[in-house]
Write a structure and sequence with these properties.
244 residues; 27% helix; 9 helices; 7-stranded mixed sheet; Class I SAM-dependent methyltransferase; two-stranded antiparallel sheet; Rossmann fold; S-adenosylmethionine-dependent methyltransferase activity; transferase; single chain; alpha/beta; methyltransferase; SAM-dependent_MTases_sf
């Protein structure tokens, strides 16, 4: 089972203070870029993986999506989402995305924001999502960028003669990374960018677009905390398509 860190009381309280929790989609600085990757949702069956408070689910309905399903492992998140939603066209489900089961060829658009980097078994999930999409259906997601999940550490590796040579970030070594963010021991999975792309291709997807997102000068002026993201991307956005 995936780590259910969002039901940790300290983590949930800390996450609730973030702009993207308080302000919804408009509180996420990458939202405009994510929105640009989305197809028209009118009349579409839409899934949101890691739906959290349900902000995207509700937005999708304003875009005339016919049916929206939100999936999340966190009971606390789903309770919050349900309390904010008065729409029979939105259904929330508690599920571990590692073992997610979806009906074949029933979904037109699958969306996920900053959830997939927590998962160990991404190949199995991509296979499930490919099968769940209708021909021509789209997968649009964001995840933490591997430059961010493999940061340079304050240690130095050495060459064959024992000399200090270069800073270490272990980009090539994929696997679990532990961070202390709102709570200790938060597990995230580090994967090279090429791994993300190749796993999508191996599952049958066509890559449509990718954005190694960074803030604009205007966004930094409004929120100086984003300045650290202008030189190296913290997240990436990707859209992929199931062929007709």
């Amino acid at each position: 089972m995936s780590q259910n860190i969002y039901d940790d009381p300290d983590f949930f309280t800390g996450y609730a203070s973030l702009p993207r929790s308080v302000e919804g989609l408009n509180g996420a600085p990458e939202w405009a870029a994510m929105q640009a990757l989305l197809p028209s949702l009118a009349g579409k069956s839409v899934i949101d993986l890691g739906c959290g408070y349900g902000w995207f689910c509700r937005w999708a309905r304003t875009q005339l999506a016919s049916q929206v399903s939100g999936f999340d492992l966190s009971e606390k998140m789903l309770i919050k989402a349900a309390s904010m939603t008065q729409d029979s066209g939105i259904l929330y489900h508690r599920a571990d995305l590692e073992t997610l089961s979806l009906p074949a060829a029933q979904s037109d658009v699958i969306y996920s924001s900053l959830a997939l980097h927590y998962l160990r078994d991404i190949p199995a999930l991509f296979t499930t999502l490919f099968r769940a999409l209708t021909p021509g259906g789209m997968l649009i997601f964001s995840a933490e960028h591997p430059i961010y999940t493999a940061p340079v550490v304050q240690a130095w590796s050495t060459d064959s003669e024992g000399n200090r040579a270069w800073p270490v970030n272990q980009y090539q070594q994929e696997g679990v990374r532990i961070s202390n963010w709102f709570a200790d021991g938060v597990e995230k999975q580090h994967r090279k960018l090429s791994t993300w792309i190749n796993l999508l291709i191996a599952s049958g997807f066509e890559i449509v677009a990718m954005d190694e997102w960074g803030p604009s000068a205007e966004q930094i002026a409004e929120n100086p905390a984003l300045d650290e993201e202008k030189e190296r991307p913290m997240i990436f956005l990707l859209s992929a398509r199931k062929p007709d």
